[in-house]
Structure formats: structure tokens, C-alpha cells
Known about the structure:
mainly alpha; two-stranded parallel ribbon
Amino acid sequence: xSVKAPIIPTADFKDAESYITPWGSLMRMYSxxxxxxxxxxxxxxxxxxxxxxxxxxxxxxxNLRLKYRIRSKAGITGLAQVNGRDVIxxxxxxxxxxxYEMRKKSLILRISISLKTIYIVxxxxxxxx
Length: 129
């Protein structure tokens, strides 16, 4: 994103493309921007799998997470990301996050999310901006 971009979720932009730099577009297309989150995992601030971090201005998503008692530590990927990434509704995102929250100790579920994440990143699917 350009330094002139407003601090709002990308989905809320009316003309997001005008703020995305060529380098930013390439990073987003191949999810290279997520590599920086590995530092947060090493520090213990994030996990590999969990609900995506949100911006403080994302009130609708925050309220839904509170309503559904989503308390997991933020993650680089999650069940919502492998089930639609940028193209699913907030409600469906939170339903996926709640499902994961209730079953996060399932090794099979975590392996499934990890493998689907690799597939989706390589396929470059469900990216709107």
C-alpha cells in the first residue's frame, strides 16, 4: 500500500487499486507480506493457525468475535482463510473461527488447514486486492 492509503481494512476501500503499489501487489499475490508475521510467531504474539489479526477500526468483525467468544491468539492462517479468504462474509469468517476455536486441539484439523493454506497460496485464489 502507498503511504497515502487510509488506515482502514482493504475491503472497505472504494478504490483500493489506486493505493496498491506494484511491489505491494506482487507481495500480496504471493502472500510474501505474511512472512513478516513469522517474527510475531517467534516472539509468541501470534500462532501459525488462528483468527486473522484485525485493525481496531473493524468494529463489525470485532463485535462478532466478541459475540461468538473468539479468544484464540491471532494467526497467519486459519479456517476462514482456507474457506474463502477475502471473498466470504464477516459472519462466515466468524463461524469458521468459532469452529476452529472449539476444535483447535485437533491435529487433523490443524494439518488440514496447513495443507489447504499451502494450496491456496500457490494457487493465488480468493484474493480481492
